[in-house]
Amino acid sequence: MSSRRDPGAPPVRRALRSAKLVALPVAYAGRQAAGAGRRALGRSAQEVNRDIQTRTAEHMFAVLGELKGCAAKLGQLLAVYQLALPRELAAPYQVALARLQDSAPVMLPASVHGVLAASLGPGWRELFREFDDRRAAAASIGQVHRAVWHDGRPVAVKVMYPGAREAVESDLLQLRRISTLASVFLPGADVKTITDALCESVRAELDYAAEADNQRAFAAAYAGSHEFRVPEVLVQRGDVLVSEWLEGIPATRIIRSGTREQRDRLGTLMMRFVLTGWGRHGLLYCDPHPGNLWLLPDGRLGVADFGACAPWPHPDFTDLTVDLCDAIFNTGPPALEAAVRTHGFAQPGRQFDAAALDVALSACGEPVRHERFRITTSWLRKQVLRITSPRLTNVMRELTLPAHCTPFARAGLTLVGTLSQLECECDFRAELVRSVPELADVFTTMRHGVAAG
User: DSSP state, 301?
Assistant: First the structure.
């Protein structure tokens, strides 16, 4: 007898999930072949290419949205990568991504109640004065409901999708299988080590107990802060996490229609929260995604979702930061090559063009050369295109990423992507020195100008 499956739950059969992911490049190849035929029949290349991009974007985000798990997390990263595309090419991806974020399948109330009962006990309703069965927000592996705790406090109740663990493990297996293809584009990278580190980072988000511990650590560190508010964890059991509700203006709304003052304050505080966190409690917040951030009525930054956190700092982090920045902004290619090799960004024996790397990184470092700088999507697009160019002469192809830097790379990518969407203007140099005081001397003697290229 077949059972009716909750449409809000991710498909967990490994073969089904793998087939959906594998179908993406196959379908793309088919569209390319069909496009060649349409061009032969007289349709313009521009018209055919736009049709291919639109259909591919819709297919990609539809599949990722249905699969959830780390596939949906990949969709969040694609939201940043699409910023690198020219505006006319990025449009289909922006539309499809918005559809993914706004219309993720909803868990039916019966399934939500089942998870609550399994995690909090059959008398779970006694813990709440009120519980709203309607989803307040969607997450990659669960959804959030608004409720009122038994003491009258508004709370957010995070409930994991049934089968999410199996779904994520299936996605990670598929990711490991296809990750070797990355060596075609990044021959100098240790793809296996980077993939393993990425998988561990994603898998950690399935542990709500660890997430609760992370959130408590951040909340304690910023208790009484005039800049940050981290909601208190009230209870965590099984696949449910209950914490205080944050009431404010979502970062997503500020990106759409916020004032210049709101954009700059939100971006500055977000950057400060990520950069200074490890000095206060030894943790790096890895997911400064707009869906996790609010500007509160009192001007503080409200932050939620602490599943993606990593122990920090790495013992060599300060030396790594100072050595690389000093080479980029002061001493030039020979010192940059030495720093890259010392800190593991090039595999032993791998050759690369240090002068070309100096040009690329100097351009990316432009924000700290000014007392104030505004990061925009057009500026970020130039940097990403420079770094990800498929040309064989692109020096980035010859480099790798040390495994211990993977969480920081994830946090940095998401942070810069969000800053560009806000078009935040601030003193980036001062914010870096605030987190790593040893950089003050580096920036005092900084070379003037920005390398061309």
Answer: E
